[in-house]
């Protein structure tokens, strides 16, 4: 059985939209030009464990981020999102929070957090806090109390199923070695629900006290001055808490049966009123429901709920060792753009801490094409409509590490999946091959700063090995090379920041049937840009339509453009942007 692919598919189904019920709007619509600062941002995502360690314990820390703020500033980005930095036993690297008002010891102190925030603000860099409230850690005081007795005041902070009612109806857990989301707890002879690992019990949002706790926590951070919130796994906070049996074929629309529950919008309006409307902040939901309609219901401005969402359709592309087809990639991004052209706002990203490195998945990480393909992919992210999220290290073209042995992996998903495959008598070689490509650890290896020991990340032993290509792929080397991925990235961020057309302009796909080249235009009033991206290793010639007869070159990831009249030949992974 294709175990890992299956788990990943379920993971993304959990997070992603099933836009089969498409509201096809292939024609470009009039732009949504309601201007907002968070639409104009370029967000740099940092996995704090892996960015910069200053105390030699092998784990990145807040001081390290402070030390590197000038670097972040030099990229031209104007917002940073950090994965969770709260106190946590780290069953899922911080996505299991034991105290929402404290900083994880390994990362530093609250004073360091305050300093980091003010140093960011001094540089006009805004800050997004990860908020993980579909579940807490089982080591959170709330859960410790909740499990003590059935009449404990915290009992209803979580979902409990008394054993005398029989076994609860099946629910799938993403991170459980047996795939079971109900865990029996003998202390009170009851089961508790955990969609993720057993150390991440789901909070019961039906309980108004839980909701108030969350709003208070968010206000605590908003008072400190954070500028945004990323709401982890948020579509799952509202569930059908009668937990009925799952109907036949539920796998086709997992979200509908696991989340997007009847009260989600009530909670979101409350959250908006209690927190978001009171501060100059925005919130982005991880996940966007089951279809365009769901996604609109989360983010359309007149609903007063959230400002932005990530859909995961783009991440569903290419989740296999066979790779992906450009036609599918184009189709996903074109449909999602047109569905949100008039109203609503989304994120644009090709990687994060849950997926392989962008260049290894969508480009090619061999020495010949790595740099060109990484530059081309960053060109895509920074020229699409939606707020771009760039994952740390992708500005350098960092690649998958590709471990061979299970002992090298740290991620709970990799380890539990291994156990599950063994328990079920699955094909372990197939599992390991898939893991090598798709594991979340691929995207979590330490930042490559220079060519000294441990890539300048730590003086100790890094918590996850450094990719051995660090001597070639690192900040120091690329800083000194005008043609590096890093310097190209700075150029393209600057272009986005200086040209509202790249933020707000209408998008239109051209040359839809070209198998190698993704070509599109962005137009806003009289500003018009043409973007040509070769997603292949082949030289590819295209005929430019008449209206592009006098294009003015703005960006090129090669030194030349091969053009004869209307015929233009793109080199492997060439990226070009023109004014026309
Ligand atoms: C989504 C996060 O991105 C992922 O890293 C985490 O494991 C799960 N939510 C559970 O919090």
Automatic annotation (TrEMBL):
Gene3D superfamilies membership: Glycosidases, Golgi alpha-mannosidase II, Oligo-1,6-glucosidase, Domain 2
Taxonomy, superkingdom: Bacteria
Listed SUPFAM superfamilies: (Trans)glycosidases (SSF51445), Glycosyl hydrolase domain (SSF51011)
Keywords assigned by UniProt, alphabetized: Glycosidase, Hydrolase
InterPro entries: GH, GH13_cat_dom, Glyco_hydro_b, O16G_dom_2, SusG-like_C
Domain (Glycosyl hydrolase family 13 catalytic) ranges: 45-444
Family to which the UniProt record says this protein belongs: Belongs to the glycosyl hydrolase 13 family.
NCBIfam families, sorted: PRK10933.1
PANTHER family in alphabetical order: ALPHA-AMYLASE FAMILY MEMBER, OLIGO-1,6-GLUCOSIDASE 1
Protein name as annotated: Alpha-glucosidase
Species this chain originates from: Christiangramia sediminicola
């Amino acid at each position: 059985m294709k175990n890992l692919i299956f788990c990943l598919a379920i993971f993304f189904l959990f997070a992603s939209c099933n836009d089969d019920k498409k509201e096809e709007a292939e024609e470009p619509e009039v732009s949504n030009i309601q201007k907002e600062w968070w639409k104009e941002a370029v967000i740099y995502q940092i996995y704090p464990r892996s960015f910069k360690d200053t105390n030699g314990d092998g784990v990145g820390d807040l001081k390290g981020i402070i030390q590197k703020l000038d670097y972040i500033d030099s990229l031209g980005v104007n917002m940073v999102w950090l994965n969770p930095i709260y106190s946590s036993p780290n069953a899922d690297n911080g996505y299991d929070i034991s105290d929402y008002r404290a900083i994880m010891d390994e990362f530093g102190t609250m004073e360091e957090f305050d300093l980091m925030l003010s140093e960011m603000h001094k540089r006009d860099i805004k800050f997004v806090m990860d908020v993980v409230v579909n579940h807490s850690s089982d080591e959170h005081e709330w859960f410790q109390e909740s499990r003590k007795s059935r009449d404990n005041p915290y009992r209803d902070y979580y979902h409990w199923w008394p054993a005398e009612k029989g076994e609860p109806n099946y629910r799938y857990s993403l991170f459980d070695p047996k795939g079971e989301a109900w865990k029996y707890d003998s202390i009170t002879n009851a089961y508790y629900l955990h969609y993720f690992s057993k150390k991440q019990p789901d909070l019961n949002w039906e309980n108004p006290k839980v909701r108030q706790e969350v709003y208070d926590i968010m206000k605590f951070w908003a008072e400190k001055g954070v500028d945004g919130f990323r709401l982890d796994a948020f579509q799952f906070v509202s569930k059908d808490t009668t937990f009925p049996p799952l109907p036949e074929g539920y796998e086709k629309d997992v979200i509908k049966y696991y989340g997007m529950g009847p009260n989600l919008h009530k909670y979101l309006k409350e959250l908006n009123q209690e927190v978001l409307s009171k501060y100059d902040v925005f919130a982005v939901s991880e996940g966007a429901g089951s279809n365009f309609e769901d996604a609109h219901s989360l983010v359309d401005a007149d609903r007063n709920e959230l400002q932005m969402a990530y859909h995961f359709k783009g991440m569903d592309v290419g989740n296999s060792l066979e790779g992906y087809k450009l036609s599918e990639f184009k189709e996903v991004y074109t449909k999602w753009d047109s569905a949100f052209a008039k109203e609503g706002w989304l994120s644009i990203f090709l990687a994060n801490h849950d997926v392989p490195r962008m260049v290894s998945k969508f480009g090619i990480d061999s020495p010949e094409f790595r740099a060109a393909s990484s530059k081309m992919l960053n060109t895509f992210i920074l020229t699409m409509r939606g707020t771009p999220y760039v994952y740390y290290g992708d500005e350098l073209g960092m690649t998958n590490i590709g471990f061979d042995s299970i002992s090298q992996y740290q991620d709970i998903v990799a380890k539990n999946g291994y156990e599950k495959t063994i328990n079920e008598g699955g094909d372990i070689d197939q599992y390991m091959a898939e893991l090598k490509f798709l594991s979340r650890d691929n995207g979590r290896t330490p930042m490559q700063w220079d060519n000294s020991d441990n890539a300048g990340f730590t003086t100790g032993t890094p918590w996850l090995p450094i990719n051995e290509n660090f001597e070639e792929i690192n900040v120091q080397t690329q800083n000194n090379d005008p043609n590096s991925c890093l310097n190209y990235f700075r150029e393209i961020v600057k272009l986005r920041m200086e040209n509202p057309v790249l933020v707000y302009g209408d998008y239109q796909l051209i040359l839809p049937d070209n198998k190698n080249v993704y070509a599109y235009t962005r137009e806003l009033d009289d500003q018009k840009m043409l973007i040509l991206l070769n997603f292949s290793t082949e030289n590819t010639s295209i005929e430019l339509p008449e209206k592009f007869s006098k294009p003015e070159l703005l960006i090129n990831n090669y030194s030349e453009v091969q053009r004869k009249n209307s015929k233009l030949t793109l080199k492997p992974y060439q990226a070009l942007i023109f004014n026309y």
